[in-house]
Amino acid sequence: MCDIINDYALVDCRRISFSVVLKLRVLRSIQFSKSNTCHTFYPPIMNPNSRSGLPPGYSLHDGYVSVPDYLHLRSVSGLSSKTISQANAVSTGSWYGCYITYEEPGKESLPIGMGRIIGDGGWYFHIADMAVHPEHQRKGLGDVILKALLWKIHNESPEDGEPYITLFADEAGRKLYYKNGFVDSAPGQLGMAWRA
Ligand SMILES: CC(C)(COP(=O)(O)OP(=O)(O)OC[C@H]1O[C@@H](n2cnc3c(N)ncnc32)[C@H](O)[C@@H]1OP(=O)(O)O)[C@@H](O)C(=O)NCCC(=O)NCCS
Predict the structure, then answer these.
(1) Is the torsion defined by CA of 134, 139, 143, 145 positive or negative?
(2) Among 33, 39, 153, 171, which one has the highest count of C-beta atoms within 10 angstroms of its own C-beta?
(3) CA Rg, the chain, in Å?
(4) Does the pLDDT at position 171 exceed 50?
């Protein structure tokens, strides 16, 4: 029998109109495989702080982009428009956020990707606002942002309990989330969004 100390994900899920809600339980525990081989259940969370995964010109930062940049990044990447008042609450009401800037030689550095976590810091963590500017997509930047968010939870949530990490996945992000250990939460649980 082989024991490994690792993080792994348990998941289940369901489609609701165009959204899927995904649930990730990261367990810090010793796992035993039934055969004599070790299994990880999803790729281990990598430390994004090495920042070596970023292509030249890109930098990862803790924190939040400015309100105008937030509104711009959401709309340019195809997410629904938000108001300035809504955007004002992002930096004050989130548990953690990170973003990526791009600096072309001789030009000003601009934020081109972001993601954040809304949560209580204890066990409930909801990932939101995952967005990368279309001109910078498919370079692994969304993956770096997601890993940075997961890394923060992994390191800063209480060690004596499991974090409960959720998100609603648009079509564009699903593969990325599956790749990082998320699973559909249905049929065990069905994500819901209130509609006026
Ligand atoms: C979802 C989103 C954040 C992903 O960002 P991204 O930076 O493009 O993500 P990544 O580059 O890490 O991964 C996306 C794809 O690019 C591929 N990729 C990664 N590095 C690459 C590279 N150097 N060259 C080519 N492709 C690459 C990945 O393998 C992945 O492909 P796959 O989907 O076939 O597996 C981005 O598409 C986005 O902003 N979409 C619009 C807004 C949105 O829907 N947000 C999600 C809300 S839930």
Answers:
(1) negative
(2) 153
(3) 17
(4) yes
How far apart are the CA of 131 and the centre of ligand 1, in A? 9
The pLDDT assigned to 42 comes to 39
Give the mutation target among 54, 112, 137 for probing the ligand 1 site: most ligand atoms within 8 A of CB: 137
Structure token digits, residue 64: 């939040």
137 Cα–ligand 1 center, Å: 5
Q: Which atom of ligand 1 is nearest to the CA of 129?
A: 47
Q: How many beta carbons lie within 10 A of that of residue 94, not counting itself?
A: 17
- SS3 state of residue 104: coil
pLDDT value for 5: 25
> Which whole number is the average pLDDT over 7-16?
29
- Domains assigned to the chain: 3-184 (3.40.630.30)
Sequence-distant (≥ 6) Cβ neighbours of residue 149 within 8 angstroms: 96, 98, 115, 116, 117, 127
Note the pLDDT tens digit of each residue in 17-64. 233 444 444 434 323 222 222 223 334 455 555 555 799 999 999 999
Cβ neighbors of 54 (< 8 A, separation 6 or more) are 60, 100, 140, 141, 144
